[in-house]
Design goal:
299 residues; mainly beta; Thrombin, subunit H; six-stranded antiparallel β-barrel; six-stranded antiparallel beta barrel; 3 helices; 8% helix
Amino acid sequence: MLMMSDECVTHSLCGRPQINSRIVGGQVAPEGSWPWQASLHVSGGHRCGGSLINNRWVLSAAHCFQGVRPSSVTVYLGRQSQQGSNPNEEALRVTQIINHPDYDSNTINNDISLLQLAETVSFTTYIQPVCLAAPESTFHTGTDSWVTGWGNIGSGVPLPFPQNLMEVEVPIRGNRECNCNYGVGRITDNMVCAGLRSGGKDSCQGDSGGPLVIKQNSRWIQAGIVSFGTGCAQPDTPGVYARVSQYKTWINSHITSNQPGFLLFTSSGIDEDLSFTCAGLPTVPAPTPSESNANCFSG
């Protein structure tokens, strides 16, 4: 008899939406296509996005919850509209907010937070966990990724009625290039960047804490957490995200049962970002491939 650990149970479920249609580029997301998406309300209003990572925990950004009491937070799962009806949603209370102990509000490094739900989530077609990027995952420049949320559709331009969940496809931008965009040293190994060099597609205010996901075979893997940027969708200023693959040890130190499913994402070929250069940027040797230590089945 094969016995699977709690982590492997979540691993087998995560990142597999039962509804899989797509509308490309800053458009309304088909209902149920991103079933891990959470809307985190503070004192009755949408504050940030988040992602369901197992049946009791939501992942978000630390900057969303500075000085926030768990009793003031409501998590909505299965939600499509902020102003219309949501027959497939579930509202849950929060018992604990755990911001990363090394979160720095000045540099916005380690911008990651865990929210523990008061009740166990029942998975449905519209409510499912996402997989998380395992340590040593690589995301080469140009890798297609998707970001979702209810944030502004431009700087200072709120999402219009009925405020349906939006989705946008953006390519990964390497950390060397991103450091050149933001100033050398600004982008750390705990961050990942995504956006068009020409601008026009991006996450924006109100999307913070939400997931940046990448598809590998039939599975969706969360690579990043919406963190910060300069304006929204500006040329040569990609969105910056907390790099999820850096935090498996920290996440699992707090989630000791039914741990999230971590999957290794490996980009193929040579990353063009390795040759990107600008004033003050040191030369970095090409990384050596490493093997995953995953113990679960993938598919």
